[in-house]
Amino acid sequence: MAAYVSPVVEGKVLRHRGGETRVLRPGYVKPKHEFNYQQAVERLPGEDPAQLNDPAYRRLRIITDNLKQEEHAIVQVEEMQAVNAVLYGKYTMEGDQFDTVEVDFGRSEGNNIEQADGKNGLSRTVIRLIRRMILTSTAIRPAVL
After folding, report:
1. What 3-state class would DSSP assign to 144?
2. Spatial separation of the C-alpha atoms in residues 53 and 22, rounded to whole Å
3. How many domains does the chain have?
4. Which of 14, 19, 95, 104 could be cross-linked to 90 through a Cys-Cys bond (beta carbons 3.0 to 4.6 Å apart)?
5. What Pfam families does this protein's entry cite (predicted)?
6. Residues 112 and 125 in one domain
7. Residue 35 in contact with residue 66, Cβ under 8 Å?
């Protein structure tokens, strides 16, 4: 019989692996522009008055410009969320169509990145140290260092 095992004492289940699952309904980010046909009749900025384009071309150009602006706005929101997630381990979703939600990735405060002062910003040595610190304290294994 083992020295630390008793047949009359109930055993205790050991924790093998754990995790946490959270469900989040993402906020809806879709900027929209209104288009009316009066815009296609008027001359566009930069259009040569001597060689006016037809309204169908103007309509297509206006819609294309609107789509580019809308895509750019969505990318800006995603980049802001990514930067806040990297720097602080969380970000806040705010909008008119949903309640304000703080998305927290549960990262330790010790892993937050403090931005450097000065002209040169972070040196390569500091960036390597930050990467090493993140790799040793998390289970994330990026393919590129």
Report:
1. coil
2. 54
3. 2
4. 104
5. Phage_cap_E
6. yes
7. yes
**Residue 40: count of CB within 10 angstroms of its CB:** 19
DSSP SS3 for 58: helix
Tokens for 51, please give them: 């060689």
Residue pair 119/134 in contact (Cβ under 8 Å)? The answer is no
Are 113 and 96 part of one and the same domain?
Answer: no
- The residue type of 47 is E
Whole-model pTM over 0.70: no
Element (H, E) at 93: strand 90-93
Question: What residue type is assigned to position 81 of the chain?
Answer: Q
* pLDDT tens-place string over residues 68-79: 988 888 888 888
Amino acid letter for position 94: E
Q: pLDDT for 12-61, tens place per residue?
A: 777 777 667 777 776 677 778 888 878 777 777 777 777 777 888 888 88
